[in-house]
């Protein structure tokens, strides 16, 4: 299993002094693990922490867990969790701490774009890290969903 963070700013590119190919280290932008045999499906009966860590002082054995999460938190946005071609709904988690709906880093493009101010009437503004655009409701079209 490999988790890759899109648009990760922590990847390192090293220019070689001898002019050979650039070195690229993306290890800070991904996590790799091994799936035990016969466990190819997402097991939601155990902790799955995405985007950060909520660590409470408790004994993992009280819950039948064999391990306790011990990694640093993630500051960013997560969407489109796909496993074995199935899209998982992240809108209603069983437990959420210091996490909010939406993505502040991308939503700001929608809030500050005057050209897309009418988008919300007949569509939804969807921001990325570089721009915003309207996804129009059925029957509506145009840059701001007004036609």
From TrEMBL:
- Keyword list, A-Z: Disulfide bond, EGF-like domain
Please give the InterPro entries that the UniProt record associates with this protein: ConA-like_dom_sf, EGF, EGF_extracell, Laminin_G
The record's section on SUPFAM superfamilies has: Concanavalin A-like lectins/glucanases
Domain EGF-like per the UniProt entry, residue ranges: 106-146
The Laminin G domain, residue ranges: 1-103
Q: Pfam families under this entry?
A: EGF_2, Laminin_G_2
Q: Which domain of life is it from?
A: Eukaryota
- Put simply, this protein is called EGF-like domain-containing protein
């Amino acid at each position: 299993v490999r988790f890759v963070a899109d648009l990760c700013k922590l990847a390192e590119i090293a220019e070689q002094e001898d002019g050979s190919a650039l070195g690229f280290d993306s290890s800070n932008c991904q996590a790799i693990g091994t799936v035990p045999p016969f466990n190819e499906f997402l097991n939601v009966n155990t902790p799955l922490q995405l985007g950060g860590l909520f660590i409470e002082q408790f004994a993992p054995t009280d819950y039948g867990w064999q391990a306790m999460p011990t990694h640093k938190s993630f500051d960013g946005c997560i969407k489109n969790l796909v496993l074995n071609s199935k899209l998982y709904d992240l809108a209603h988690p069983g437990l959420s701490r210091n996490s909010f709906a939406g993505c502040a880093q991308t939503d700001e493009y929608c809030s500050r774009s005057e050209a897309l101010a009418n988008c919300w009437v007949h569509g939804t503004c969807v921001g990325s890290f570089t721009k915003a655009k309207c996804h129009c409701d059925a029957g509506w079209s145009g840059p701001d969903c007004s036609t």
